[in-house]
Specification:
Order of helices and strands: HHHEHEHHEEHEHEH
Shape: globular
Helix content: 25-40%
Structural class: alpha/beta
Number of strands: 6
Radius of gyration: 17 Å
Distance between the termini: 41 Å
Largest sheet: 4 strands, parallel
Length: about 230
């Protein structure tokens, strides 16, 4: 795979790209395409999270599982959808917590979290691709090795990152993070199946900003503006 990714990430992840597991993943993705399978997100958006948030800008990491598998939903940022696409249930629950925690109102057709990414929030999925209509269909084909390496490298190279780990899957990644150097906030997953078991009321958005301010960094503007009406 000819990896098109932001320069600082490409340098840092060079060893991960050269691993056998990533080469096998590349072959798998090419085979999927030859077989006519639709893969999300589109190729140019595969590394969108990295391209929008260079290494030196990362302050917060929000870890998801794999991209949305519906038409036009995935655009390379965990939990995010492009402007004009209706927010899936988990994202709607994130909006509910935003309102409860810091009073931010969100629009169901404005779930584009690019504004967060531009401020240093790495919106990372554990698998970066998915087959259309088949959740977790690419999760076992090498992406875990790659994204685990991303977390390990961030843990080693950076200091004071805030990891928001929502749900059991994300929390299993704690083993990759040096808790002596970084902040880890855990909660239930925002899915409708679990949001009322510890995601609602977690106050991770205000807590993140409290940590950033306490450590002399600018807080995240979590506000998302609804699309303008023509």
């Amino acid at each position: 795979m000819d990896v098109q990714i932001e320069t600082s990430w490409k340098k840092l992840l060079n060893a991960a790209f050269e691993k056998a597991s990533f080469q096998e993943l590349s072959i798998f993705l090419k085979t999927e395409k030859k077989q006519g399978k639709t893969i999300y997100p589109p190729g140019p958006l595969l590394f969108n999270a990295f391209n929008l948030t260079p290494v030196d800008q990362v302050k917060v990491v929000i870890l998801g599982q794999d991209p949305y598998h519906g038409i036009s939903q995935a655009h390379g940022l965990s939990f995010s959808v492009p402007q004009g696409v209706k927010a899936p249930p988990s994202l709607q629950n994130i909006f509910k917590e935003l309102k409860s925690d810091i009073g931010i109102e969100s629009h169901v057709y404005y779930g584009d979290l690019t504004h967060w990414a531009n401020q240093g929030v790495l919106l990372l999925n554990a698998a970066l691709t998915v087959r259309a209509g088949e959740p977790f269909s690419h999760a076992r084909y090498g992406w875990a090795d790659f994204t685990d390496a991303v977390i390990e490298i961030l843990s080693a190279e950076k200091n004071g990152l805030i990891f928001l780990l929502w749900g059991k899957f994300a929390q299993e990644k704690k083993r990759l993070i040096d808790e002596g150097k970084h902040y880890i906030l855990t909660a239930a997953h925002p899915s409708p199946f679990s949001a009322d078991k510890g995601f609602f009321g977690c106050r991770h958005f205000s807590k993140t900003n409290e940590i950033l301010l306490k450590t002399g960094r600018s807080p995240i503007d979590w506000k998302l503006q609804p699309p303008t009406q023509s």
